[in-house]
Amino acid sequence: MTGYGVFALGGQAPRVGFRASGGILDLSDLGPPFTEPALNGFLALGRDAWARTDEHVAQRLAAGAKLVAENEVERLLPFAVADYVDFYSSFEHASNLGRLFRPNAEPLLPNWRWLPVGYHGRAGTVVVSGTDVVRPCGQRKAPNESAPTVGPSRRLDVELELGFVVGVPSELGASAPAGAFREHVFGVVLVNDWSARDLQAWEYQPLGPFLGKSFATTISAWVTPLSALEHAWVPGPEQDPEPLPYLRASGERPANLDLDLEIELNGEVISRTNARGLHWSLAQQLAHATVNGASLRTGDLLATGTISGAEPASQGSLIELTWNGERPLRLRDGSERSFIEDGDEVVLRGRAGDVELGEAQGRVFPARTR
Question: Is 93 a catalytic residue?
C-alpha cells in the first residue's frame, strides 16, 4: 500500500483515492470531503475519522473492490500546501556540509545540537511527483570570479528528505509539544527539495536559503498515513546534550521511522540510506516549529532536510556524494555527474517492510532565459 491522494480520470472532476498495490481505490462515493480536489478537508477531521477511513479502505480492498489502473489517471498535488518548513536534522548531512564549507573549523555550529535548525520555504512551488523541473536562474559567483553574473544554475542538486503533513491545526500562541505529534500529523511523503548550490552559496548569508531553494520542491502524489507505519518506529540515536524539556515527549529516547530510502538517477540507484538515523526526530521538529506560538494549519508540510548516512553512497545529495564536485560519480552508461544536468531524471523511493511510500519523480529541463 501507499496512501491517500488526489487523481483525475478521463476528464472527470478530481477526487480522493487510496493507492494500493493493484491500483487506486476511488473514494468519491463516500461524498465530501472525498469529492474535493485536495485532501485538506479529510486531513482536518482528525484521528478518529482517519481511523474509520483506514478501516473502510481495508474492508473494501479485502472484499476485492474494483480498482482504477494507475496508468489511466492524472496524479494531482495531494493537498493544498499551507506552509512549508525545511529542517536540517541529519547529523551526517550537517557534518558533511560543515566540513565542505568550514574545513578548518568545527563542522557543526554551536546551536545545532540544541535545536532542530530550519527555515521557512515557499509553499507555492511545491509540486507533485512527475512535474518537470526547469533549471533555475539567479545570481551566482564562483570563487575565482570577481563579480556575480546572472544565469542558469551550474550546480543543480537534489535533496532526499522525508516530509510530514499536518492534519489538525493548532491555535496561534499555543505550542504543539513533542508528545502531541500524533494528534496533529496525518502522514508522510517523500520530498526532493531541489537546490541550486551556486545560487545558494552566494545569497544565503546572512539570512539563509532563498532563490537557491524556492524554485521547486517535489513531493509524492500519495500521503502514507502514520497508521500504516506503526511497525516502523524505532529509537533514534542518543542526543548529547539532553534536549530541553519541550523537545522531550517522555522519558524514552525520541523515535524515528525505520524507512529505507534511495535516490535513482536516470534509472540507476546512486544512494541508499535510512531515516532511522536522524538526530532530530519528526516530533521534535514539530515541537520546535511551534514553541514560539506559531500556529499549525491543515496542509502544513514540514520536511527533515537531507537525510544522509555515514557509509559510502548513503548521502542524500550530490554535493555530498561528489564532495562538491571534486569526485564525480561515474554512471553505468559511462557518463559522469558532479551535479544534475538538463534531461536528467531523479526518482526518490522509500519503504518500510511491505509499506511502499509514493515515489517523488522529476525531470530537469533547460532554464528559460530571456
Answer: yes
